[in-house]
Amino acid sequence: MAALPLDGVRVLLGVTGGIAAYKAADLVRRLRDAGAEVRVVMTEGATQFVTPLTFQALSGNPVRTTLWDSSAEAAMGHIELARWADEVLVAPASADALARFAVGRADDLLATLVLATAAPVTVVPAMNRQMWAHAATQANVALLRQRGVRVLGPASGGQACGEVGDGRMLEPADIIAAVAVGRGPKTLEGLRILVSAGPTFEDIDPVRYIGNRSSGRMGFAIAEAAAAHGADTSLVAGPVALPTPPGVSRRNVRSAREMHDAVLAAAPVHDIYIAAAAVGDFRPEVVSASKLKKSGEPIRLDLVQNPDILADVASLDAPPFLVGFAAETDELERYARGKLERKKLDMIAANQVGNDLGFECAENALLLIWADGSEQLERADKRVIAAALLDRVAARYRASSKARRA
Ligand code: PMT
Q1: Which of 253, 325, 345, 346 to mutate to test the pocket of ligand 1 (most atoms within 8 A of CB)?
Q2: Which of 137, 153, 181 is the last residue of a domain?
């Protein structure tokens, strides 16, 4: 029988105050089904939505709701709990909880545990879309990310308040898939994987450039999942402000030509190259040494074509297994299959972009295409999609003539 994805993993689940707290009950059940041992800590707000008894029954463990529990605290219960956890998962994480974690408050049990634990911390935001979009919440999330906190979601869609937008808690199955990344078997052990991510910037003058809307999230999620599954992982990153995933060796670049040189230098010693970067196809022919001045006249910018990194890697003597991406606004399958063939790729991951899809957002959906088949990966958090993509890439790599090992 296959091992459970969270076999023996001790998950401390923090539940904060929000209507999505009811989904946390299902999450507990599914975490246990996935093999995890679960203890639940609720904030006072959370107890207004769901009772501790519900979580006690589902987790099979007493639920803690306060720092001031004299029997538990006689033995420094909060420190013990913080040490006990292999993973601290806060779902749903309200705007208030994110703000409190960001400033490092320690005036309730959950916030104290988040400070006191050495385990990885994952937060799953859920709130009204305006609250999510607010600059204060976004700054808190950015700070938490920068400190290594994993942020899953939020998803987009109809909300309990009747509005539609970003702010829904991810579905329990997606949360579990993301938490399981790296905790399962090291299916990519022994493989060297090169990933490119993010946009490229093509300078016009010392202060202006041509860029694109890639946030780097998709490529970083792939690099994170590759390292977590045991691959020796290198990342060539365009200009993005994302933290380097654990265990990944990163090289920063700015322009398409810099990315080209970094990827071409690294590709020969890698088994697989996954090109998730949104490489600028054109650059200004001339980069002005000084800032261009307004003159009231139109400015003419002559653009020349950048090198095609994937095509150049494909023409190496012994190219790695090549996975390209295709970002399309229409006719996804047809254009992607064209790129697969033209660029001599082993597989292409096609995503619909535009209208808040693909670029910048937390979720993606991919149509994987190879010479004699295809598979749809349904919309999910980019970390979940990345893990699924790597599963398929590893299987196809091993079946290919490019696999170098028995
Ligand atoms: O970064 P995020 O905000 O998370 O968004 C993710 C994403 C939408 C950027 C990502 O999922 C994606 O689709 N990346 C590829 C975008 C792209 O440039 O697609 P394309 O169809 O223009 O290029 C096809 C392939 O050729 C890509 O693998 C690209 O990396 C590669 N390419 C393109 C141009 C070039 N000069 N050299 C290349 O190697």
Answers
A1: 325
A2: 181
CATH code of the domain covering residue 83: 3.40.50.1950
CB atoms within 10 A of CB 320: 25
Q: Name the pTM for this structure.
A: 0.73
Q: Supply the range of the domain harboring residue 339.
A: 192-398
The residue among 128, 146, 181 that closes a domain is: 181
Looking at ligand 1, which atom is closest to the CA of residue 328?
21
Domain match, 101 and 243 both? no
Of 277, 269, 281, nearest to 323 by C-alpha is 277
**Is residue 4 in some structural domain?**
no
Give distance in angstroms: CA of 314 to centre of ligand 1: 16
| Together in a domain, 172 and 203 | no
Same domain, 158 and 258: no
C-alpha angle with apex 153: 52 to 160, nearest 5 degrees? Answer: 60
User: For the chain, which ranges sit under pLDDT 50?
Assistant: 1-2, 405-406
In the three-class reduction of DSSP (H, G, I as helix; E, B as strand; rest coil), residue 174 is classed as: helix
Q: What are 334-388's pLDDT values in tens digits?
A: 999 999 999 999 999 999 988 777 888 888 999 999 999 999 998 887 887 898 8
Which ligand 1 atom sits nearest the alpha carbon of residue 221? 4
213 in the same domain as 344 = yes
Q: Is 361 a catalytic residue?
A: no
**DSSP secondary structure of 209-264:** EE-----SHHHHHHHHHHHHTT-EEEEEE-S--PPPPTTEEEEE--SHHHHHHHHH
> Looking at the structure, do residues 289 and 148 belong to the same domain, yes or no?
no
For the chain, count helices (H), then strands (E).
15, 19
